[in-house]
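Hey team,

Filing this mostly as a record. A colleague (T.K.) asked me to run one chain through the structure pipeline before their review meeting, and I want the input and output archived in the tracker in case anyone asks later how it was produced. No errors, nothing strange. Just documentation.

Input sequence:
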Amino acid sequence: MSRTIHDIRSVTATVVRDWTQAPPSTLLRRALVGMLLTAVYFTAGKLGLMLAFVNVNASAVWAPTGIALAGYLVLGYRIWPAILLGAFLVNVTTSGSIVTSFMIGAGNALEGLVGAYLVNRFAHGIRAFDRPRDIFKFAVFAGALATAVSATVGVTSLVLNGFADGIDYGPIWLTWWLGDAFGALIVAPVLILWAANPRVEWDRARALEAAALVTSLTLLGLIPFGGRFSFSTENYPLEFLVLPALLWAAYRFDRREAATATVILSAIATWGTLHGFGPFARYSANESLLLLQAFMGFLAITNLGLAAVVAAHRHAEASSRWLATLVESSSDAIIGKTLDGTILSWNLGAERVYGYGAAEVIGRPISILAPPDRVEDALPWLDRVRQGENIEHYETERICKDGGRINVSLTISPIKDAAGKVVGASAISRDISDRKRTEERIRYLAQHDALTGLPNRLLLRDRIGQTIAQARRYQQRVAVLFLDLDDFKHINDSLGHQVGDRLLRMVGRRLQNCLREGDSVARLGGDEFVINLPALTGSHDAVPIAAKVLDAIREPFVVTEQTLHVTGSIGISLYPSDGADAEALMRAADTAMYHAKKKGRNGYQFFTQRLNDAAQRRLAIANRLHQALEQDELFLHYQPQIDLKTGRIFSAEALIRWRNRELGLVPTSEFINVAEETGLIAPIGEWVLREACAQLLRWREAVDPNMRVSVNLSPQQFLHGQFAEFIVHTLREHRLPATAVDLEITESTLMMQNAENLAMIEQLAREGIRFAVDDFGTGYSSLAYLKRFPIRTVKIDRSFIDGIDDDPNDTAIVTAILAMARNLNLVVVAEGVETVEQTAFLKKHGCFGAQGHYYSDPLPAPEFTRLLKAPKKFGLADKPLARSPAARTYRS
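Output structure:
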């Protein structure tokens, strides 16, 4: 009941909204449709009155009822004003009473609304003629119930307004109700069906058959109702002669044509009975009316029901044909079988998937497709199918005719009989072998390195985790070896990445050959490999394997006809002492590997707490170094370079310092290495050059116009293509001549230069910028690069200066460097001068300049300025200046 009330409210709101919120163009179109509907309703009403039986107002079929019902179902509830107006005009032009006509019109409009609502709610609306049970519902709700509304309102209005006596209420009501009922049963269906499918797509033969059908209907209808026979037809049931024509319409055409045939026969029967012809013409008009209406009701319901059955059967046949076509054309295997597994049907898709023809398998058990090791797996879901459940996308294996195995996805559905009992099953098999191979490949790539085929970090972490769990259970140890190839970047840069990739693949194969059963090796990326060694009794068990790995790598590699010699550095961590999980062990082994590199490479080192502390310290430096420039934590100190001939300061080396709020004063040797590894050395180096140039300009303007400054360069700075332009721009920006700045580079930097970087150095030299080789003697010490590169100055490393007092070898080396420089016309500056004896030795052997704590510690710019302005000169008798004990630690 509540749902009905809700529906009525919804319908009412929809009608109001359609008329109040519609745009003017829509309202105009609706008004035109309404006027047309009013005219049709009025015309049909007048024609209906012409066919009245009992009196001038009683018609056998009241067509306007069918027109109103069809209009509501097809056009919607909004057309009620047109129905109301049409019914009012019919009645007012018949009786002349406005009040009575309005009441009757309101009843007719309400009748259609109620009928349309009931049909929409309970009989699928305009699709009510698709199924026989919906046709029956249509007859009950639209033909019987709704029409009672109009009959009740109409007869009541007649009695209230004096047009009928109350004693005649029942007969008048029955006549009224029957006329409206048959108007709904006969007229409404034909209008609804034609409105739902108005197009006529008949070929010539079909059109001729339709014409023959109409002709036959007319002739057969005229036999009992035409009055053309001399004998009396009322004694014979000749009206049943029309049944073959009705069957013809139902079987050969559709519901639309069947409804049309009913209208034609009803019209002929009504005309004949009205004129006294046919089996329904009686002396009593009421009897004639009731017999005619019974005949028409039988025709309407029977013919529509039969047409619906035929249409449903035709649709089922078409669906079956389509289904059969789809089954046969499907690329999937579709198999029908009994509950005991006997194959009943086999489509072409099954033949393509499994290789068997239908004749080979029908009647055989489905188990011929199941691998012996998978038969038991199928039992649980077979029981579920017998219980009526569907099995969707069950993945398993099947055997083909050629004996090969394929992966399939099965969807199994139970087949039930009319009583709902499961009598069989249909199985749809889809070959998913390609998908499985793709999934396996994706899974493999997700867990393996694409270059070497070794496990990647993801799979390695899982394997280490498994070995740790096992080691915990059996009180064993696990070792993780972190291997990094030495100087692999040089191979990539000089020989190309293709050679480097081939070398990495060869290294991976050699590592696999070094391992025990149960060990595993993975590539993390670049030239980094990690080896997992489970089930160790002690740390000593990892040493032979590490040594074996290093020996294997040291063996020459032949790549594209080139013999390459490679070494590696290994860090070793142990469970449980160095970490409790995979990540901790890998971090510890990584730290130990860096320690092995610092120890000279080509070896291995175990992880210790000291190494861990150093790694944590390095991480903290790296994290905070990113903000050092932004937070103005970097600053410069300057150490003087003394002209040993005059005792005056001719240049200053700019040395960077960093004081962090949390770390304090960080040693330069620590953060410079981190800056180079993280790529921060480039912006830091640019800041140093700009800061040093700005300070030099102040000194040249205020103290010494010939003052110079030297700035250290990192090899990483040469990797930036605009580096030379930046230096030239910075000098010009600070109005400094090119000779005012010396750029200090190491021997290793020179040896690593390619043609592009060499061109950069030569470009700077043409601008007049001078280069100095820092820490000379500690690197390659090749005279070739002194000739090849535009070098102006060499700086003898402090390690040689320290020993010239008591080490003959250091004395000989320094003497040789001075002699070589004199012959090559190079300037020599001795670093790390600490004593008067060292100063005397250097002056005696013709050294140009000296730098060291004997003269001054590195000083902040203000203190260095005061030193420049001092009138004294530095000589042999001078005592060294006061300096911080930690000064040497922070020299870069």
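Quick notes for T.K.: The chain has 31 helices and 22 strands. The two ends are 94 Å apart (CA to CA).
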